[in-house]
């Protein structure tokens, strides 16, 4: 049966054409298809357990007495569950220094994270969509600040803070973390905001939206994943910091990292306070990460695709 331009007599399309060639699958795709989803899930679970092993060990150690910690490893809890006790956490709650250090850490971490997110978002939007003199030059300066190590600024900033009365204050630590967190924040958010379709912003401008309304109603909702990722990074960095806190924080009310280090130096065998204190200081970032993991993954994947 003959056809004309791929059309069979009677107006029907010719179905005798050669079948489409299936694209060759990668080795990773073939391996995943052969092993099946169950094996992959088991492997991921094993990796997650291996990653969580230090946290699990610290938790179980914090639930044992100092004598048991000194005599055997934390895995003995599985064979002797009677070792578990909450006395260590009672000691921690009665330790005013460690509990106060947790409040100090929160008082430093929350403002430092909020300031970096807010200022970085505004600056990222300005560098991405606002025209002003020297925009590209200033952005290159911001990118150049990413390679400046923290150690280089310790002595100059300490002298500056001492001159203006910010040395050994909570405000000084917040300002230091904010200053060194902004270059990465501006770089990250500017690149993310620049991928927003121009037509969407122009349509909002035609509807009468100003720059502030455009930023709050259009750019911020679209940039939610990137902003959440930035907030997680900044929170983890500030909460777990010890170097800056050791130098610039008030020695009378230090953050939790410095307080635990001082406990080790003064009372080397005070494990009944150190173990639960270390676990509490570690579990807060874990809670923040798992609470915002969906937004974090969305931000990372969006940045990878773009």
Order of helices and strands: HHHHHHHHHHHHHH
> Termini distance?
50 Å
Shape: globular
- Rg, alpha carbons: 28 Å
The total count of helices amounts to 14
Helical content stands at: over 70%
Structural category? mainly alpha
Query: How large is the share of residues in beta strands?
Result: under 5%
Q: Please tell me the overall pLDDT.
A: 80
Description:
There is one protein chain. The longest helix has about 35 residues, at about 25-60. Helix content is about 70%, strand content about 0%. It contains 14 helices and no strands. The protein is mainly α and about 300 residues long. The relative contact order is 0.11. It has helices at about 25-60, 65-70, 85-95, 95-130, 135-145, 150-165, 170-195, 200-205, 210-220, 225-240, 245-250, 255-265, 270-290, 295-305. The model has no long low-confidence stretch (mean pLDDT about 80).
Secondary structure blueprint with pairings:
Elements: H1 27-62, H2 66-71, H3 87-93, H4 96-129, H5 135-144, H6 150-164, H7 170-193, H8 198-206, H9 211-222, H10 224-239, H11 243-248, H12 256-266, H13 271-291, H14 293-305
Helix pairs in contact: 1-13, 3-13, 4-7, 4-10, 4-12, 5-7, 7-10, 10-13, 10-14, 12-13
List its salient traits.
single chain; 306 residues; mainly alpha; 72% helix; globular
Can I get a quick summary?
The protein is mostly helical and 306 residues long. The protein has 14 helices and no strands. The radius of gyration is 28 Å and the shape is globular.
């Amino acid at each position: 049966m003959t056809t004309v331009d791929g059309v069979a007599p009677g107006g029907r399309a010719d179905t005798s054409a050669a079948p489409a060639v299936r694209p060759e699958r990668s080795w990773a795709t073939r391996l995943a298809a052969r092993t099946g989803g169950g094996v992959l899930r088991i492997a991921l679970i094993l990796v997650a357990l291996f990653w969580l092993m230090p946290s699990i060990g610290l938790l179980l150690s914090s639930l044992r007495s100092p004598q048991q910690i000194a005599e055997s490893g934390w895995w003995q809890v599985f064979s002797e569950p009677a070792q578990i006790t909450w006395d260590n956490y009672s000691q921690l709650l009665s330790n005013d220094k460690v509990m106060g250090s947790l409040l100090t850490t929160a008082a430093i971490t929350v403002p430092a994270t909020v300031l970096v997110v807010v200022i970085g978002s505004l600056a990222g939007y300005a560098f991405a969509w606002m025209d002003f003199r020297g925009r590209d030059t200033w952005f290159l300066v911001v990118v150049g600040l990413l390679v400046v190590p923290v150690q280089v600024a310790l002595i100059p900033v300490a002298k500056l803070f001492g001159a203006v009365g910010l040395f050994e204050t909570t405000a000084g630590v917040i300002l230091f973390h904010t200053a060194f967190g902004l270059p990465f924040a501006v770089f990250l958010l500017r690149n993310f905001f620049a991928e927003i379709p121009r037509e969407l912003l122009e349509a909002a401008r035609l509807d009468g939206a100003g720059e502030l309304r455009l930023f709050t109603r259009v750019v911020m909702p679209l940039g939610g994943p990137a902003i959440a990722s930035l907030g997680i990074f900044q929170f983890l960095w500030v909460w777990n910091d010890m170097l800056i806190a050791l130098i610039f924080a008030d020695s009378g009310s230090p953050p939790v990292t410095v307080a635990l280090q001082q406990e080790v130096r003064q009372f080397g065998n005070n494990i009944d306070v150190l173990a639960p204190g270390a676990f509490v200081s570690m579990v807060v970032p874990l809670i923040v990460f798992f609470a915002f993991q969906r937004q974090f993954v969305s931000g990372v994947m969006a940045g990878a695709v773009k």
